[in-house]
């Protein structure tokens, strides 16, 4: 669910952090032209990543990494020990495969069969139907699920309808653009029935329908373009306000949103849209004086970014505003105990050196590890996988 393996609670403590893919502090982002190429090996591939910011999994063994700099998705396959055996770029399923390319993509999730991407600077939500070719490699067929490429807006309404026809062995997709428009879609998750997208100070819902059907886009929480910090005041999600919400996850009952410049974690009821703050102090950033604090109302964040859940806990990447063009505060990963109501339970730093960015080589202790702008995060049911964006690596916490 939501591109993560759930209902398998992760360990109470984490021992180490290791690099799965990438070369620490060496990335394509510093080059004029990306030089990523497919890699297959028995050990950790020496792959130069661009700017990995999103990560999702379909089965806990195959991960799809959203590379914002190259505007592509890289497929990372792990062996039984957790080492990466191959890294490939996701390509089309055509007779002559081509890279699937986006325009400043920000978020990625999966329902186990398809990928969904927020194609931010195209203002669209894209669906990639996955298939496996004769060599056992994943390929994809792309369609625009909602929004109009190149046209921004703040409009609820119909999504897009894609019709597939086959003539003389040639398959053609025809898309009818609906009324819905997006302003800056970033985070995305799914419960298998709907997609939930963080866009322009709101959480929006897109119904998932069979191929050929028309999705519907509605605003579940927040008000398009309006910033603030209030929870729902009238029992409705649209009365709530966010301040640069970034990413989102779900346990099937609620959505959990990182509200970056409010320095909080917000819960949104899927059934009602009701928004409540469960962790963090509104408008106050900072560092917790201990590794753990007793409950969410006592926690401080510097800029909560990525978020995932195993169904029992939330896991949040946290780093603050740039300082002289370098990420500064935070640089850590937190675990948050979910509760049925009110504020969350205990908030614990499980990885990273607080308020210090840097890079590591090899395997290091979890609380002594260095990150540099950690963003996306997911779980395979055993450990956590983090896109350590400005270290150009994928890190594993176990």
From TrEMBL:
Protein name: NHL repeat-containing protein
Species this chain originates from: Oryzomonas sagensis
